[in-house]
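Operator note (shift B, R.M.): manual run for PHD-type domain-containing protein requested after the automated queue skipped it. Running by hand, logging everything below so the morning shift can see what happened. Input copied straight from the record, untouched. If output looks odd, do not overwrite the archive copy; leave it for review.
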Amino acid sequence: MESQTALNFSYCSDPKFNLNVLKKNTEEKCDICLLVEFKPVRYGEFIVKKYKSTETLRCHYFCLLSATCIPQRGQPSAGITGFLIRDIIDSFREFRDKRCVYCCHPSAAIKCCHEGCDRWFHYICGYKNACLTQFCGAHNSFCDQHLPEEYANPPETKHVACEICFEPLPWATDAKYSPVAIVKTCRDDECPPGLMHRECVQQFAFSAGYHFKCPCCFSKKYIKNAQQHGIFVPSRDASWEREPGAFKDLHKRSCTAADCSLASTKAANDVSKMVGCSVCGGQLMHKVCTQLEDPFTYLCKACKDESFIKLL
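Run finished. Output pasted below as returned.
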């Protein structure tokens, strides 16, 4: 499944980080991988950080998180989400001359964590060549030849649809098949088995933040499982809670329908005849104004536009 190029989510643009996050395609190179790519769902947001008044550091956020030689020693508001600018710049000498095992270009910042493996690669090249970075713990990365054992036996995907977008999953026999491009659900006793596109899960994680959960059993314990399978889950409120004025109508008791059918009646402000959005609880509307057979399934426009809504 192709990732979106429009940035409809943002983690690093949180004011507490004091960062500039590009929201459209750019021809600027990432100072870590030295590559020009703009696919935020795949490679993380493209960050521009000013320092020393005249200097600028640019990078893909996932290049920063996955780099083997860059420590995260600062407070969240320092440098780039805790990665100090001096540490980032000092790390360049550790990997600038390392050539990517996939594209052969220099500045490969990731070393496979498998004991005895000396393969280095760019995060972008790793993504395209079935490598894995775990976004938890030590942020270990694995080249395609040393993936965790569970990837040795790919799941059966023939005639199987993604649990999020409902589009077909790639078959293991496809020439471009990547075992890490498929993410499993919890798979515990209470969770029905399911498979998803990695990009669908990542998009859901960006949207859901703290509310991220297994799409099949809705368990929040799924976060660690997803992180171990290459999904970055931001520590922040869900995107639908960060919309301007997201809660402005919670104190109101009036129908938000554009053409309320009860506006001129005594029932205009009767809460018992209203229903809130089934996801966010806001944007009250008279049951009759929803024009739905089951008004309790009503979704406000903001929630309906979210990609995660297909999970419900």
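Quick read of the result: Residues 85-95 form the longest helix (11 residues). Residues 28 and 187 are 41 Å apart (CA to CA).
Leaving this for review. - R.M.
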